[in-house]
Task: inverse folding
């Protein structure tokens, strides 16, 4: 759901699921028309294709990635063109279950921390990373609590769709 609404992300995912199981091998075989049919932008389709190809050739083992130390897993994911820190952190938190990541680049999370901690302004990303160090080794838990706080107090469900 990066850069699009949660509803749009869920609609895209529903169209993908309606086609049957979407595996790396299946995605690699899709042409541009196939990815357009799902509603994927060119950039997102290109990124997904690179990830699928890396999985297919064995350069990216998702099961191993889930067991790696968070920093190493982040480095491996962000080495793929199109995968930035936010995407890697969200994937590792929700799909891999890493307990100690804090996606400080998430706008809603930044606003939630500012409001929840009564900060005078929304912290910059680097400042929020430093602030989140106090919640280690459970930063992922802290992030989920702040998202829940944001949903309750700001009236918006902003938990990333994965």
Result:
């Amino acid at each position: 759901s990066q850069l699009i609404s949660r509803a749009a992300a869920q609609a895209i995912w529903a169209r993908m699921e309606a086609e049957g199981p979407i595996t790396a091998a299946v995605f690699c075989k899709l042409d541009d028309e196939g990815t357009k049919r799902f509603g994927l932008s060119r950039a997102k389709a290109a990124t997904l294709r690179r990830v699928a190809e890396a999985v297919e050739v064995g350069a990216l083992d998702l099961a191993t990635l889930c067991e790696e130390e968070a920093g190493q897993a982040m480095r491996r994911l962000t080495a793929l063109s199109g995968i930035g820190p936010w995407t890697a952190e969200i994937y590792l938190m929700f799909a891999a279950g890493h307990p100690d990541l804090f996606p400080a680049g998430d706008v809603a999370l930044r606003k939630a921390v500012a409001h929840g901690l009564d900060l005078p302004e929304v912290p910059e990303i680097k400042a929020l990373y430093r602030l989140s160090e106090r919640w280690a080794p459970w930063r992922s838990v802290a992030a989920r609590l702040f998202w829940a706080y944001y949903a309750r107090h700001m009236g918006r469900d902003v938990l990333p769709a994965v």
The chain has a mean pLDDT of 89. The CA atoms of residues 20 and 26 lie 10 Å apart.
